[in-house]
Specification:
This protein is 27% helix and 19% strand. This is Amidase family protein.
C-alpha cells in the first residue's frame, strides 16, 4: 500500500492532471506531495515549498512545521549463513561516515544487513550504480572500527577516519557498501576449527557444512549465499581470494601485484597483498574488475618492489595452455572430466595448443647465473620474510605493547596463527635489511619468470595461460576437522607430493594474475546429511603480470559461447 507519493517535476515525463491523482488515490495513496502546481480539487495534494531533488524510490517522510525531510529506506536481510560481522549504512549526509547496524530479528542470532532499493539508482548512469557490495573487515570504512577478525585489536583501535581508496572508488562509481564480512584473523590461513573470536561462516553449497576456506571466507560465502548481495571485496596474499572462491563455486581472483591500492587496509605483506572481488556472473565480474582496477589506484614500485604496471585491454590472447603435471590431474575423476572438457573448449575456441610440463623441474632445472633466483625452497623462505614484517609493524607491535600496558604485562588473546610468532618476535632478526633483501630476491624471481615461463610476445600479452586447481579437486572439505579423514574428503591446502611450492604460492612469488572460475559440480555422499550432495569444481587460470584485462576478455568470450556460466546461490552452483 502507498502511504504517500512524492512526485518531482524533473522526474515527471508527462503532464500531471486530475486523473493521475485519482489513480494514486485508488492505489491507496493517502497523501500526494508535488513540487509543481496542478489543477485539482483533491484534499490529498500538498505543494512542496521547494523543488524535490530526489531519485526515485521509497522514502520515509517526516514533517516539522512547514519543513519536510526524506530519509532513505533499507530492507533488512538476515545473515542466515553468518557471513557478516554486521551490516552498515551511510546516511547520505555528506560526511561519508558509516554506521554499524546493531539489529537482529526477534528470536534470531544473526545480524541483519540493510540493503537499499535498486530504484534509487534507476537513472544513475555510473557503472556500479545500485551494486550492493560486502567488504572484508580488513578495509577501513569511515566511522567503523576495522577489527581484522580480532576482538583484542578491535578493542584498542578507534573508528577509521577515512574510507580506503579502493572502497572509495566503488562508492564513486555508484556502489553501496552494505556491511563488513568476516575475515580469518589478520588475514591468516586458519582452518575453520581454529577460529576463536568469531563464529566461522557457513558455506551454502552442498550439505551446508563445507569449508569456506580462510581469510576472505565471509565475503566469498556471502556471495554464494545471497541473491541480494551483488559482490564482495576480499584480499589475497597466499590464497585468500582464490581458494574461498573455489570452495564456494564462484568467481574470484588474485590480480597482478600492484594493480590496486591497499592504503587503509590491514596488511599481511605489503609486497604480496592484493585485493579482489567475488561475483556470480562472469560478465559482471569482468566489468566490475575493469572499472575498479583504475590506473590511478595502481601501487607504486616502492611498495611492490616491482616495475610500474601498464595493463593493456586487448585480445592478444595466449597461444599455449600450460598443464602442470606436478599439480594435476584432479583428485576426483568426475571432476577431471569437467576440467578436460573445459580445456578442450578453451583450446578450440582460441586455437591454443596444450603443453604438459612439470612446473617444479622446469623452474629448478633452469640455467641461470644466480641459482637462488629459481630455488623454490629459498623463495618460499623469502616469501615468509616479506609476509612477516609488515603485519608485525602495523598490527602486532602495537597490539602487544598496548595490551601489556593496559593489562599488567599480559600478552593479548589472539589465535594460534600469530600467537607464537608475535610472542617471540625478534626485531634484531626480522630487520628491514632482511625484508629488503627478500624483496630483491622476489623481484629477481619475477624478472626470471616473465622472461622464461610466462612472457609477452608481439602476438600475446601472455604467451601462455597456466591452469591448475586451488580448490579440492572435486572432493568435499568440511568445516569439521574429523569429517575430512579418509579418501572421500580432503583438507584444504594439501601439498602436492610432486611439487616444492604449493600452486597457490606461484603468483604470490611471481606476481602473476591468478583467477578462479567455476566450471561445474560433482556429487558426493555427505557425512552430514547422509544423502548425495553437490560440490563445486573450479579451475585456476594464470597469466603473466599485467595481462589481467586480456584474461577478462577471454573469460567474457568463454561466457558468450556458454563454456563459462553464471552460478546460482544456495546448495548448488548450477
Amino acid at each position: 500500500m502507498l502511504g504517500a507519493v512524492a512526485i518531482t517535476s524533473t522526474a515527471s515525463k508527462g503532464v500531471l492532471g486530475e486523473s493521475a491523482i485519482d489513480y494514486l488515490s485508488s492505489s491507496g495513496a493517502e497523501h500526494v506531495l508535488l513540487d509543481t502546481t496542478i489543477s485539482t480539487s483533491s484534499t490529498k495534494v500538498a505543494k512542496s515549498p521547494s523543488p524535490l531533488k530526489l531519485p526515485p524510490g521509497p522514502y520515509l517522510a517526516t514533517s516539522s512545521g512547514n519543513a519536510i525531510s526524506f530519509s532513505t529506506i533499507y530492507r533488512l536481510y538476515s545473515d542466515d549463513h553468518d557471513n557478516f560481522l554486521y551490516g552498515s549504512y551511510e546516511p547520505n549526509d555528506g560526511t561519508g561516515i558509516y554506521t554499524a547496524l546493531d539489529h537482529r530479528f526477534p528470536g534470531s542470532v544473526f545480524a541483519t544487513i540493510p540493503v537499499p532499493s535498486r530504484l534509487y539508482s534507476l537513472y544513475d548512469t555510473r557503472p556500479f550504480a545500485g551494486f550492493r557490495v560486502g567488504v572484508k573487515d580488513l578495509f577501513d570504512m569511515k566511522g567503523l572500527k576495522t577489527s581484522g577478525g580480532s576482538l583484542a585489536w578491535q578493542s584498542i583501535v578507534d573508528p577509521a577516519n577515512a574510507t580506503a581508496p579502493a572502497l572509495q572508488q566503488i562508492i564513486e562509481l555508484g556502489g553501496v557498501l552494505v556491511g563488513k564480512t568476516k575475515p580469518a584473523q589478520f588475514a591468516s590461513a586458519a582452518d575453520p576449527w581454529s577460529w576463536e573470536d568469531f563464529h566461522y561462516p557457513f558455506n551454502p553449497r552442498g550439505d551446508g557444512y563445507l569449508s569456506c576456506s580462510a581469510s576472505s571466507s565471509g565475503s566469498a560465502c556471502a556471495v554464494a549465499a545471497y541473491d541480494w548481495l551483488d559482490y564482495a571485496i576480499g584480499t589475497d596474499t597466499g590464497e585468500s581470494m582464490r581458494r574461498p572462491a573455489a570452495v564456494s563455486g564462484i568467481y574470484g581472483q588474485r590480480p597482478s601485484q600492484g594493480i590496486i591500492s591497499l592504503e587503509n587496509v590491514l596488511p599481511l605483506g605489503f609486497a604480496t597483498d592484493t585485493a579482489g572481488v567475488f561475483a556470480r556472473d562472469p560478465h559482471s565480474w569482468a566489468r566490475f574488475a575493469k572499472h575498479w582496477y583504475a590506473p590511478s589506484l595502481h601501487q607504486s614500485s616502492d611498495i611492490t618492489g616491482l616495475s610500474p604496471l601498464s595493463v593493456p585491454d586487448n585480445k592478444h590472447y595466449p597461444k599455449t595452455i600450460l598443464y602442470p603435471t606436478d599439480y594435476l590431474p584432479l583428485n576426483n575423476s568426475a571432476a577431471q572430466e569437467l576440467l578436460d572438457y573445459f580445456i578442450g573448449n578453451m583450446s578450440s575456441l582460441f586455437g591454443m595448443r596444450v603443453k604438459h610440463f612439470d612446473f617444479t623441474s622446469t623452474v629448478q632445472n633452469s640455467s641461470v647465473s644466480t641459482q637462488a633466483v629459481i630455488n623454490l625452497t629459498d623463495l618460499a623462505i623469502h616469501l615468509g620474510t616479506v609476509n612477516t614484517l609488515p603485519a608485525w609493524k602495523v598490527i602486532g607491535s602495537r597490539l602487544v605493547s598496548t595490551w601489556a600496558a593496559r593489562y599488567g604485562g599480559r600478552f593479548p588473546p589472539i589465535e594460534a596463527e600469530f600467537r607464537a610468532g608475535w610472542a617471540t618476535y625478534d626485531e634484531t632478526i626480522n630487520t628491514m635489511q632482511a625484508y629488503n633483501a627478500s624483496l630483491i630476491a622476489k623481484r629477481d624471481a619475477v624478472d626470471w619468470y616473465e622472461k622464461n615461463l610466462q612472457y609477452s610476445t608481439n602476438e600475446s600479452c601472455s604467451e601462455s595461460v597456466m591452469i591448475y586447481d586451488i580448490g579440492t579437486g572435486g572432493l568435499p572439505s568440511y568445516r569439521e576437522e574429523d569429517l575430512n579423514a579418509g579418501p572421500n574428503a580432503t583438507l584444504l591446502a594439501v601439498p602436492s607430493p610432486r611439487a616444492v611450492l604449493p600452486a597457490s604460492g606461484i603468483c604470490t612469488i611471481f606476481a602473476c594474475a591468478d583467477f578462479t572460475v567455476p566450471i561445474g559440480q560433482v556429487p558426493y555422499l555427505s557425512q552430514v546429511t547422509f544423502v548425495e550432495e553437490m560440490v563445486p569444481v573450479t579451475v585456476n587460470l594464470v597469466v603473466k603480470r599485467e595481462c589481467d584485462f586480456v584474461l577478462y576478455n577471454m573469460i567474457e568470450e568463454l561466457a558468450d559461447v556458454g563454456v563459462l556460466k553464471a552460478v546460482k546461490t544456495g546448495r548448488t552452483a548450477f
